[in-house]
Specification:
Number of domains: 2
Distance between the termini: 63 Å
Oligomer: single chain
Order of helices and strands: HEHEHEHEHEHEHHEHEHHEHHE
Helix content: 25-40%
CATH architecture of the largest domain: 3-Layer(aba) Sandwich
Structural class: alpha/beta
Number of strands: 10
Strand content: 5-15%
Number of helices: 13
Bound molecules: pyridoxal-5'-phosphate
Strand order of the largest sheet: 1-2-10-7-8-9
Largest sheet: 6 strands, mixed
CATH class of the largest domain: Alpha Beta
C-alpha cells in the first residue's frame, strides 16, 4: 500500500499515530551479513524504511555520520566512553536531513507536487534542499524567532518563506490551515510516519558503530542524549532500538536523556512535576529558537512512559549554560555546533556532575546541528546580487561587505 494513503487517520479508531510493520523474518541475517558493502547513508537500512521503490529515493548522502569519541573533555571528566554522533556532517548541517530524505522520497513516490511545513528553522532548510532536488514546491512557515540567516538559506532554494509573528505552535496552526485551504500536503512532523521512521536510522548507525568499536555485532549505548523540541528524534531513535531488540541484534535498550532549554521545557517540567499530560508553554523564553516547541502533544506521554519503564533522565539547562558548552566543545574538542546542539552538551555536563551518568557508561550525544557559515549577503531584497569588480588602486570596496575585524 502507498504510504501516503496511510498518513491520514486510522479508519477504525481515527487515531493519527500510525506505525508501519515490516517483514522482520530475515532482518537479523541481512543486518549481520549484507550491510558491510552498502553505502554509508540512511538507505543502508532499506529493509526497515517505508518506501516501496528505490527509484524514488531522494538522497544527498544523509546519515552515515561519524561517531567521534569525546577525546579531551572525556578524559577531563573521567568518562572514557562518551561519543558524539556528529550530525553536523550532513548535506544541510543538521540531523533533519535524515527526515527530509525519507519524507521527500515518500512524497515523490506518492506524486505529491506541493508541500507545506512549519519549522523552527532546520526542517525548512533541509526540506528545501530535498524538495528542490525532487522538483516539489515547498511552502515553509517559520516563527519570527528563527534567525534571518536561516530564513535566507531557505529562500535560496526557491522555497516560499512565510514568517509568522508568533511562536512555533501558532505557526504550525497557521501552516495547517493554509495547507487545508489550498489542498496542499501538510507535513505533520512527528505524526508523519516517514519522519518518525527516518530517525530510526540514528539508532541503527549508533548500534552498528558501537559494535564495530567493541569488536563486532550491534550494541546499544547506555545513554542517548539529545536536545529536544518536538521530540521526533528520541521517538524515532527509540523505535529503532526496539526493532533491533525485536530481531535479536541488541541485548538491552539505552536510557534516553532528553534536554530542554530552561525557558521552554514543557516536557522536563511536566515530567518532574509527575504530570501525565504536558503543561503547555505559551510564551517560550529562550534564545535557542530551534528548540521552542511549547506544546509537545502526544509525544510527551509517549516519552514519559518510556522513561518510567526503562529509566532515563529529563533535564533543563539555561541558555547561558548552552552558550558556555558551545565554547567548551569548540575549544576543547574542535566541535563547533549550533546552540540547540550545545543544549545537549550542557545536559551531558549536568548529568555527569549529578552522577546520574556513571563514569563507565557508554554515552552517545547527538550533535544535532552545525554553526554552518551563513553569509548575510547571500540574498538581498531582490534575491540577486550584483558584484562590481573592484578597480585597481581604488579605495572603494564592495558596498555592505563587513570589514574583517582588527585589520
Ligand atoms: C530539530 C532539532 C532538535 C530537536 O529535535 P526533536 O527531536 O525534533 O525534538 C535539536 N537540535 C537541532 C539542531 C534540531 O534541528
Amino acid at each position: 500500500m502507498n504510504l501516503t494513503e496511510l498518513v491520514g487517520v486510522c479508519p477504525e479508531c481515527q487515531g493519527d499515530w500510525l506505525d508501519p510493520l515490516y517483514d522482520c523474518s530475515s532482518i537479523k541475517k541481512t543486518f549481520c551479513h549484507d550491510l558491510k558493502g552498502r553505502p554509508q547513508n540512511i538507505w543502508r537500512y532499506w529493509e526497515l524504511l517505508p518506501l516501496l521503490h528505490r527509484e524514488n529515493i531522494v538522497s544527498m548522502g544523509e546519515g552515515g555520520t561519524p561517531l567521534l569519541p569525546l577525546a579531551n573533555l572525556g578524559l577531563m571528566l573521567g568518562h572514557p566512553n562518551i561519543y558524539m554522533k556528529d550530525e553536523r556532517q550532513t548535506p544541510t548541517g543538521s540531523f533533519k536531513d535524515r527526515q527530509a530524505s525519507l519524507a521527500v522520497s515518500v512524497l515523490k513516490e506518492a506524486n505529491i507536487k506541493e508541500v507545506v511545513v512549519a519549522s523552527t528553522g532546520n526542517v525548512a532548510i533541509s526540506y528545501s534542499a530535498y524538495c528542490a532536488r525532487a522538483g516539489i514546491k515547498l511552502w515553509t512557515f517559520l516563527s519570527s524567532t528563527v534567525p534571518a540567516e536561516k530564513m535566507r538559506e531557505v529562500a535560496l532554494y526557491g522555497t516560499e518563506v512565510i514568517k509568522v509573528s508568533s511562536h512555533y505552535d501558532k505557526t504550525k496552526e497557521i501552516a495547517a490551515q493554509f495547507a487545508k485551504q489550498k489542498d496542499f500536503f501538510y507535513d505533520k512532523g512527528v505524526r508523519n510516519i516517514a519522519s518518525r521512521e527516518s530517525m530510526k536510522t540514528l539508532a541503527f548507525e549508533m548500534a552498528e558503530q558501537l559494535g564495530d568499536i567493541n569488536g563486532g555485532g550491534f550494541q546499544a549505548p547506555d545513554w542517548y542524549i539529545q536536545a529536544v523540541s518536538g521530540g521526533l528524534g528520541p521517538v524515532g531513535v527509540w523505535k529503532g532500538f526496539e526493532e533491533l531488540m525485536a530481531v535479536g541484534l541488541i541485548e538491552k535498550m539505552p536510557k534516553l536523556a532528553l534536554i530542554q532549554a530552561e525557558g521552554c521545557a514543557p516536557m522536563v517540567n511536566s515530567f518532574k512535576a509527575g504530570l501525565a499530560e504536558a503543561e503547555i508553554i505559551t510564551d517560550p523564553q529562550t534564545l535557542v529558537a530551534t528548540l521552542a516547541t511549547g506544546c509537545p502533544g502526544a509525544v510527551y506521554p509517549y516519552l514519559r512512559n518510556i522513561l518510567l519503564e526503562h529509566g532515563g533522565a529529563m533535564e533543563t539547562v539555561s541558555d547561558q549554560d548552552a552558550f558556555r558548552a558551545m565554547h567548551v566543545m569548540a575549544q576543547m574538542d574542535g566541535l563547533s555546533m549550533e546552540p540547540a546542539a550545545a543544549i545537549a552538551c550542557a545536559g551531558l555536563f549536568k548529568l555527569v556532575s549529578q552522577q546520574v551518568i556513571k563514569p563507565d557508561e557508554t554515552v552517545v550525544v547527538n550533535i544535532s546541528g552545525h554553526t554552518f557559515p551563513v553569509d548575510k549577503l547571500i540574498l538581498d531584497d531582490r534575491r540577486v546580487r550584483n558584484c562590481q569588480p573592484v578597480e585597481e588602486g581604488s579605495a572603494q570596496r564592495r558596498p555592505e561587505r563587513p570589514q574583517p575585524p582588527g585589520r
